[in-house]
UniProtKB/TrEMBL annotation:
Biological classification of the source: Bacteria, Pseudomonadati, Pseudomonadota, Gammaproteobacteria, Alteromonadales
Pfam family, one: Peptidase_M90
InterPro entries: MetalloPept_cat_dom_sf, MtfA_fam, MtfA_N
Alphabetized PANTHER family for the sequence: MTFA PEPTIDASE, PROTEIN MTFA
Protein known as: Zinc-dependent peptidase
Length: 274
């Protein structure tokens, strides 16, 4: 009898723990966001994250609060001898949280760890050719987003992006866009949207622009977007997210309908930031 009571009690406690999860998460995040943001951390943001200095004051404040929550919930791991410092954590967290501004968010709920390598790193790839033969190969990458709860990044490439913030490339934005894309359970270039009508509009505009990029890539025509975005719709979403935050004026002028679609999703208009 005692054993049955203990098992029943354990079940009740487990159910209560699960049921109160959102409340506990909200309280934890409120506590984290109330922490005073250290002055040296602000200096890192100004030095490393060009977008931070262009944000209106209220978005700077919101970004700092989101960074505190992100740092309190995600684990950073140095790989191949790389040492994680405040500069590394702040540089990555700030740009990851840039994608979350102005929106209700669960802070990349599937993400647990950010693995940082000193340089580009190799990962194993399995590919099947037209004959059905599976080939194993090593791919050299600057970043990768995994559905198992990890984002992998090269610090060397991050530093290059920080040194050239308006060239249309940003590995952090790219990989965290993939994390947003997969929040609805699919990595297909369409993140979670609020209505059927929004999905229909998103699909129509994205398909038009994706097809145009594929055509430009096949012809070798000049384009604002990197040809890598023509690989598949998921990569297209990640590539245009990079350009949205790093070359907003060019994006808005050359691909206005697409820009407006991203602006509606992110609830931001980087083209108006000073």
């Amino acid at each position: 009898m005692l054993g049955l009571i203990l098992v029943t009690l354990a079940g009740v406690i487990a159910i209560a723990w699960i049921a109160t999860g959102p409340l506990r998460a909200r309280k934890r995040r409120q506590a984290l966001s109330a922490i005073t943001f250290p002055a040296p951390w602000r200096a890192i943001l100004k030095r490393r994250v060009a977008a931070y200095g262009r944000l209106p004051d209220h978005l700077q404040q919101e970004l700092r609060r989101k960074i505190l929550i992100f740092l309190g919930e995600k684990q950073f791991i140095g790989c191949n001898g790389f040492v994680i410092t405040d500069e590394v954590r702040l540089t990555i967290a700030a740009q990851a949280c840039l994608l979350l501004l102005n929106r209700q968010t669960d802070f990349y709920p599937d993400l647990r760890q950010i693995l940082v390598y000193p340089n580009a790193f190799y990962v194993e790839r399995s590919e099947k050719d037209a004959a059905g033969v599976v080939w194993e190969r090593h791919a050299l990458l600057a970043g990768e987003s995994w559905s198992q709860g990890q984002v992998l990044l090269s610090w060397h490439d991050i530093e290059e992006d920080c040194a050239h913030p308006h060239d249309g490339y940003n590995v952090i934005l790219h990989e965290f866009a993939h994390q947003l894309d997969q929040e609805d359970g699919q990595i297909d270039g369409a993140p979670a949207l609020p209505s059927k009508e929004r999905y229909q509009r998103w699909s129509r505009i994205m398909q038009q622009e994706y097809d145009a990029l594929c055509t430009a890539a096949a012809r070798g025509d000049a384009t604002l977007f990197d040809y890598y975005g023509a690989t598949e719709p998921a990569e297209f979403f990640a590539v245009i997210t990079e350009v949205f935050f790093t070359r907003a004026n060019d994006f808005s002028q050359q691909h206005h309908a697409l820009y407006q679609e991203l602006a509606a999703y992110y609830r931001l208009d980087p083209a108006v930031w000073n």
